[in-house]
Design goal:
This protein is an alpha/beta fold. It is built from eight helices and eight strands; from the N terminus they run βαβαβαβαββαβαβαα. It has one domain: TIM Barrel, CATH 3.20.20.70. About 35% of the residues lie in helices and about 20% in strands. Strands 1-8-7-6-5-4-3-2 form an eight-stranded parallel β-sheet. Helix 1 packs parallel to helix 8. The longest helix is centred in the last third of the chain and has 15 residues. The mean pLDDT is about 100. The structure holds D-xylitol-5-phosphate and zinc ion. The site of zinc ion (ZN) has 6 residues, from strand 2.
Amino acid sequence: MAYLSPSILTADFADLKTQLKKLEEGGADFVHLDVMDGSFVPNITFGQPVVRSIAKATDLPLDVHLMIVRPELCLEEFALPQTEFIVVHEEACLHLHRTVQQIKALGKKAGVALNPATSLSTLDYILPELDMVLLMSVNPGFGGQKFIETSWQKIRELDALRKAKNPDMLIELDGGVNLDNAAALKEAGVDVFVAGNAVFSAEDMAERVRQFQRILK
Ligand code: DX5
Ligand code: ZN
């Protein structure tokens, strides 16, 4: 079973409610929210007030991807009733283990994201505690970038690791996902597919979500 988590990063932010409805209509599993602070990544998107409004505007569970420094300072505000996952970056956490425990104490599933150049070995001592690992297959900050090819090897290695150490853990992939690579990515071990540009550039977004779901389900 694989899941689609469309990222609203390339949405029209003045018309979010309509677009969220289209994601629901197509049968998306989650909505992926890219929170960026202009410090951890060279882009600024939105924060807690917008996430709260999105939670009111959709029934989809939220997949919150925090691309911010010191995420431990504001986890609680992202732990809304609709929040399914809170994902923090390994590179942004001084005390990753503590931050993961904080997410769990808020009653949420904890994910850790790795940038393309960050080794899987950084998770050696925490993998059994994670609900999800998000592999970045582009450098974080922007939608519509080209898939980094070394991600294939990283997915396969993480798939082998989780089978040995934490079989229930999900693998999420973020960046450059499209209809052409989705089937092979699923085969390689990806469970949660983030797709921004591939969904939001479509003329008919609901139909694009259905096209993805035919591959993933
Ligand atoms: C990138 C974000 C992604 C982004 C993916 O920093 O984390 O979620 O929206 O966009 P696409 O699917 O367009 O590569
Ligand atoms: Zn993301």
